[in-house]
Amino acid sequence: MSNLEREAVPALCGGRGFVVAEPVRELLSPRQVRLGESSEVRRLLPNLGRRMVGAWCFVDHYGPDDIADEPGMQVPPHPHMGLQTVSWLHEGEVLHRDSTGSLQTIRPRELGLMTSGRAISHSEESPRSHARFLHGAQLWVALPDGHRHTEPRFEHHADLPVVTAPGIKATLILGDLDGATSPGTAYTPIVGADLALTRGADVRLPLEPDFEYAVLSMSGEAHVDGVPLLPGSMLYLGCGRAELPLRAESDAGLMLLGGEPFEEELIMFWNWIGRSQEEIEQARQDWMEGSRFGEVKGYDGAPLPAPELPPVPLKPRGRVR
């Protein structure tokens, strides 16, 4: 999924200056964002108060939406650079196409991981014959400077490591957790995991104290370190934790996001991550002229035009506003 807002606002992210070096409980409320004609998502990152969690720099939660009589997700071809996209579903299917020639249907708890590197374009849509409900999250991971010009690629991993204990099943999306390692390619120390809790679960999840973390609630009723978390909200946890207490009032679904605090300062504008005004200007020009980002073949519709750049200079700054 893309940032489809026509009035894009630059997000100035990165740097260690605002990383909370101790455990905190900072509740992040979502911003409702309309995507296309009928879809609406809850945007958790970038947030008014916090821009990144480790290298995670964009989080949208959507659904569950009843699309039985609707076309469902319809995201036309659009560009990316300097980041990875992570597609994660709890219900439904998404058909991914990109300019490297990839064509893949992504299903619940399968990892669709696209590394844009220097430039890629892609589309996402619900298949014509699709499940009744669509529910998932779309996330971006910022690429560090040494890898942000890499060749674009797409990975699909249907068989992911699972860590279990009484009351919890953790599917590892990216990085490492409790001795398990995801097959997805990561370019920074990072973790992403899908946590399925059963009603009455009372568990402690092992964490890396040097990482900063956040937890996104996907469904159900759960307490994260004593804080009740409703679906579509996210709790920022800071650093310095060796474990995380989790308690479920009902069957619940959470996403654990974490990683080593991202040192570099970034500019995120529309669907691009760069380091300077000139990079963003060049990306916009290349996309509008039809060069560099390639062509998505097979999508029935025109690509998205890029929004106008803001009248003020784009400068990389810190992690929070």
From TrEMBL:
Ranges where the Pirin C-terminal domain occurs: 193-292
PANTHER family: PIRIN (PTHR13903:SF8), PIRIN-RELATED (PTHR13903)
Pfam families according to UniProt: Pirin, Pirin_C
Region (Disordered): 298-321
InterPro entries on file: Pirin (IPR012093), Pirin_C_dom (IPR008778), Pirin_N_dom (IPR003829), RmlC-like_jellyroll (IPR014710), RmlC_Cupin_sf (IPR011051)
Superkingdom, natural source: Bacteria
SUPFAM superfamilies listed in its UniProt record: RmlC-like cupins
Residue spans of biased composition, Pro residues class: 304-314
Signal peptide: none
Entry's family note: Belongs to the pirin family.
Domain Pirin N-terminal: 42-141
Annotated protein name in UniProt: Pirin
